[in-house]
Structures
1.
Amino acid sequence: MNFFVSDAHAQAAGGDPGGFATLLPLIFIFALMYFMVIRPQMKKAKEHRAMVEALAKGDEVITSGGIAGRITELGDVFATVEIAPNTQIKLQRSAISAVLPKGTLKSV
C-alpha cells in the first residue's frame, strides 16, 4: 500500500569516514572564504590606512561622498578641504577615499 514512500533499509556498517575526512570540506570552505573575502578586505583596509596617514596639505582628494577638493588643513582626526573658492568643509580623515594627481581639479 505504500506507493509514494519506500521502506527504510539499514545501512551496512563501516561506511563512516574518519574524523579528518568529515572536517575536510569545512576546512576547504574556510580556506576559500579567507582567500576570496577576508584577505582582500584586510589588504584594502591596510592600503586605505596608509593613504590616510600619507595625506599632506595641498593634496587634491575625493571624499567618500564624492566631493572633490584640496586639503587646506590637517589634524590628527579631521581635515579641512576647500571645495570651492572660500568654501571649506571639515571632515574626518578616514572619509577621504582617494588622492588625485596634482592639477586634476583645474581640469574639471
2.
Amino acid sequence: MEDSVKNTELETHVRRAGELLAKCRDEVGLRIVGQREMIDGLLMGILAGGHVLLEGVPGLAKTLAIKSLSEVIDAGFKRIQFTPDLLPADLVGTMVYRQQTGEFVPRKGPVFTNIILADEINRAPAKVQSALLESMEERQVTIGDTTYPLPDPFFVLATQNPIEHEGTYPLPEAQLDRFVMKLTVSYPTHEQELAILRRIGVEHEISLRRILFKPDIRRLREIAERISVDERIENYIVTLVASSRERITPSHGYARYIEVGASPRATIFLYRCAKVHALLDGRTFVIPEDVKAVAPAVLRHRLILSYEAESEELTTDDVVNHLLSAVPVP
C-alpha cells in the first residue's frame, strides 16, 4: 500500500515536471524554429547537473538557443567570446591593487554566474582552458591564495565550429570528459528554413517569459533522481560503456575502431541522462530506449578512434551505433 502511494506521488511529480519542461521548450520555440533535439539536450544537461557542448557549422542558432534558454531560466547569465588572446584573468578574475588601503583585493571574473555561454570555446589557448577546467569540475575558482565557490547552479554551455581549424586549439580530452553531452546541431528542414525566412527581423523582438526558477531546477533534479532504474538496465549501461574499452581483448568487430574507450564518468552521465530522458518522456522508470537515445550524445566526445576507423572514414557516431547494435539489450 505504501509503495503504491509513493508511486502515485512520483507519477504526479513526473507529470508536473513534464508540463513545466514543456512550457520551457515551447517558450524557447517562440524564438527558435525547430532544433528540438538541441533544446531537449540543453535541458537534459542542466537537469543532469553538467555542462553541454554544442557543435555545428555557423548559422544554426546555437548561440541564440543558449541565450534564449537563459532568458527562460531565472538565473545569472554571462556570455564569454573565446579568442586566442583571452587570458585566464579575463575568465576567472584577478587580484587588483587598491591604492586607498594598500591591499590587493579580488576582482571576480564573468565565470561567477549561473549560466556561462562559452562561445567558440576551442579558440582559447591552453591556460584559459585549464582555468575553465577547475570551474567545470570543482565548481570553484582560485584567485591569488583564496578559493571561491561558484554560484549554484553552475553550467557551462559551450559552442564550437567543426569545420574551421585556423586559430583554434582542440579541447584536451580531460576537459571534453567534463561535458555531460556533446550535441551535434544539424541543418533545418525545408519547412523550418522557410519559417526562419519569414521571421527575419522579428526573432529578436520576441520577449520570453521566465519559466524555470532556481528552486524548480533543484526540485526537477530531485524528481529525476527518483526515477527508477531496473538492475538489468544498470548492467546494460555498465556493459555498454565497458564494451568501448575492449581493444586489448576484443570480442566484437567494432573494437578495432576504438583506440581509447569511455571512462567511468561516461557510465555515471549515461545513467543520469537516461533518467532525465525518461522524465522528459513522462515515465517514472527507465527503459533501454532511454539509454540508446542518449548514448550518442554522452559517448561521441569520449571515444578516441583508431587509425583504422579514420582510414575507413568512420565517425564516432558510426562507432557508437556499432556499439549499440553489438551489446545485447535487456
3.
Amino acid sequence: MASIRRAVDRHAGSIADHLEEHGYAVVDEFLSSDAVATMRSEAAALLAGGHMMPSQSTRYDEESGTVVAYEKNNVLSTNLRGGEAYHLSPRMHEYCVALVSSLAPRLNVRLSGVDLSDTLHANKLAVCLGDGSRYDKHYDNMGDGDLRKLTALLYLQRSWTDANGGCFRMYTRGEGLEPDGDGELPHVDLPPLGGRLLVFWADEMVHAVNPSQASGGEDEHRWALTVWFQATDPQGISFDAEMEQRHFADAGTSGLGVSG
C-alpha cells in the first residue's frame, strides 16, 4: 500500500491538472512492473477458478422505449469483495483501498467543487477474451442516484501490440466539433498498456472500448481493474443535456448508450 501512496504523491498534481483541463488524465508506469504482474496473476487465478461471470450492461431499446440488459460479447467481470474472499486477490484489494484513501483527498484540495469520499468506492475487474470483445459508447454514470464521480482504470497487460486492439476511446470535450468520415465525434484512442492508469470523470466523459483480439491466447487477454470514486453529495454529479444529445441522439432522451 505504501508504494501506491508514493505513486499518488508523484502524480496527483498532474492528474488534477489534466482532469481540470481535459476531463481525463493518463499516467504511464503508475505502478512497477512487478506490482502489475502480481495483480495480473491474481486476476488470472480468479478467471481460472470460475469467479468471473459474463459482464452485463444496459442500452436503450427504441422499440420498447425501455432500458434493457444485455451481455457484452466475450467480456467477463467480477466485483472484488473482502471478508472471506479477501485471500483470493489481496494485492488488488489493497490497491483499491490505498488509491481511494490517498488520491481522493489530494483531488479534493486541488479541484474546486470536488468532494470525493476517501473510503466509499466501487470496483470491477474485467477481462476481454478477444474475438472482437468491446464496450459500446457510454457514460459510466447515467444518473438516477448513482454517486460515482470519478473512474480510475489500471491496465494489467503483460504486453500490447496494435494487432491486439482494445484501445480505450475517449471522446474529447469541445463545442461545434464535427464528426469524422466514419461519423465519429472527436476522440483519442488510448492503448491499454500494462501499468497505465487512466482517470476520468464518470459522469461527464463519454467513452468506449474498441474491439479486442487475443489470437495468441490468454497472454493477450485485455485486463482492466476499475475503481469508482464516489461523490459525497448527489449535487456533485453533473448532467450535460447538450453533450448527451450530441452523442446519443438516436437513443432518445433517456437511453444514453451503455452503463458499466
4.
Amino acid sequence: MRVLAVQPDIAWEAKTATFERVDGLLAAADVQPGGLIVLPEMFATGFSMNVPAVAEGPGGPTAAWLGALARRTGCTVLGGLVGDAGGGRGRNQAAWFTPQGREGGRYTKVHPFTPAGEPDHYVAGDRPATFALGGFTVAPLICYDLRFPEIFRAAVDAGADLFVVIASWPAGRAAHWRALLIARAIENQAYVVGVNRCGRDPCCAYAGGSLIVDPQGAVLAEGTDRPETLAATLDPAAVAEYRRAFPALADRQKALAAPGCARIH
C-alpha cells in the first residue's frame, strides 16, 4: 500500500488557505488511487486552543474537504480536525474517509497536551481506534500520545500493525519525535507513519521531520523542515513474516501490565 505523508505549513486558523496549500503539495506529488494520504494534527487550523474558531459539527468544512479529497484521488484520507464537544469544548480528532468520500470513523486524542492547557479546552478520548485498509489494521494516534507506549500496546492487542501518528510537534523537541517514532515501530513490530507540520504559529516553531518507519526501525522516508510530501510503499506481508520470524510480541509477559509490583527487601 502506498502512503503519502503531507507536511504543510499551516495557515493559522485559516481553513481555506490551508486547504489550498495542501492541494498545492499534492499537485506536485505522485498520487495513486488506492493509497493512504495522511495530514497532520488539526491540519486545517493549527494547534489552537480557540475552540469556537476551529471546532466543527458533523459534516463541517474540514470533514467535507477531506471527503472531497478522498473522492478526487481515489485514496483513503486521514487528517486531524476538531469536533465540537459542546459547552465551548472540542475533541482533537483524527478522521478518515473512504475513496468514495464517506467518513469511516474518528479517533479522539487520549492524551491532551497538559503543558499547553489542552485538557482545559478539549475532551479526552478513552481508547484507541482501528480500521482495516490494504491488508493492514491501522491505528491512528495524535501527537502527545506518542509519549505513552501503553496506548500503542492496547492498539496492538486490537490487531494494529500500522500506526499513523499525526502531530503538531514543536521544533524544540524534534529529537524526541524522531526517536520515539522509531522506538514505537521497533517495540510493536509495526510500521509507523509520523506526520508533522512545519512553519510557525503564534506560539511555536515546527521542524517538520515527518517519518515513515518499517517494523524493524528502518527509516523509509524522512522529511525536512519545509512543506513537502513523503511517499513509501508498505507491505502487510512483511509485518506478518517479521512477527513470525522474531516473535517478541508473543513473548510479552502480560501480567506485568497489571497494577502493582513486587517489593524487594
